[in-house]
Design goal:
By secondary structure, this protein is an all-alpha fold. The chain folds into two domains: 111 residues, no CATH class; 114 residues. It is 74% helix and 2% strand. The protein is built from twelve helices and two strands, in the order E-E-H-H-H-H-H-H-H-H-H-H-H-H. A hairpin with a 5-residue loop joins strand 1 and strand 2. The longest helix is centred in the C-terminal third of the chain and has 25 residues. One of its GO terms (cellular component) is cytoplasm. One of its GO terms (molecular function) is ubiquitin-protein transferase inhibitor activity. This is ARM repeat superfamily protein. InterPro entries: ARM-like (IPR011989), ARM-type_fold (IPR016024), Glomulin/ALF4 (IPR019516).
């Protein structure tokens, strides 16, 4: 299901009415239907059917984020974003099918991160969704997915706040990885630094919007510090020092 853009249409009496109100009203029922269809498809064991259902769910969530981000000042759309994220979180918590969670884990971090831009409440629940994915799928499985979502988002989500839930997830994943910590951390950090450099140099980005992603990046550094202190890992400490120095360089570009 694709949503129309949120534009006003002129009614017969001369008043303005939203041309996509019915689509907005059907967001949650449509999401429940898509989640249920995907879950059932995965349960069937047919890879082609489950892949198609997962793709349809991803497209549905993309349409929702397009709608929500079409007007980031609209309070109704902010509430709708929170409802969507709450529905996803509730569905994940209620699901006992790890295969279903695995099937949607590849695209879910990116889509919930886009919706997290809508409000602080949306950010908090998006982070809980990513925490749940890490819990069910495992930190080593989710880490490359989270890093992959750093590839610059779609134009409608061109906002530094997009990166906050992903950074939160990477920080949590680092703390949960039990083996090959140095190798996994070393692989993920360049992606973070590249994204920070891109947004800090973007002339269209306000300085105030950079605070949140940099705060989350410092949380990543704190996670690395905690790991290195526990393991007395000299290479990890050296990597942490370099990471912090590069963060400071990017802060100077504010």
């Amino acid at each position: 299901m694709r949503f129309c853009s949120r534009k006003s249409a002129m009614a017969a009496d001369g008043s303005c009415e939203s041309s996509c109100s019915p689509a907005v009203d059907q967001t949650i029922p449509g999401l429940r239907k898509a989640l249920h269809a995907c879950s059932k498809a995965v349960e069937s064991g047919d890879l082609s059917i489950s892949s198609r259902a997962a793709e349809e769910l991803a497209l549905y969530l993309h349409s929702v984020s397009e709608l929500v981000l079409s007007d980031q000042e609209d309070e109704d759309l902010k509430r709708k974003a929170f409802e969507v994220l709450s529905e996803i979180h509730g569905y994940l918590c209620a699901s006992t099918d790890e295969a279903f969670v695995d099937a949607i884990s590849g695209f879910l971090p990116k889509e919930v991160s886009k919706l997290s831009i809508a409000s602080e409440k949306c950010l908090r629940i998006a982070e809980r969704i990513i925490d749940k994915l890490i819990e069910v799928c495992g930190a080593r499985f989710m880490l490359p997915i989270l890093a992959g979502a750093f590839a610059y988002p779609d134009e409608e989500a061109h906002n530094p706040k997009y990166f906050a839930p992903l950074l939160h997830g990477i920080s949590a994943a680092f703390l949960s990885i039990g083996r090959r910590q140095f190798e996994n951390i070393k692989t993920a950090l360049p992606v973070i630094l590249t994204s920070l450099e891109d947004i800090s140099r973007d002339p269209n980005v306000e300085t105030a919007d950079l605070i949140l992603p940099f705060q989350r990046t410092l949380s990543v550094a704190t996670s690395i510090r905690n790991i290195s202190e526990g393991n007395m890992h000299d290479k990890l400490r050296a990597l942490l020092t370099l990471f912090i120095l590069q963060i400071l360089v990017r802060i100077l570009h504010f």
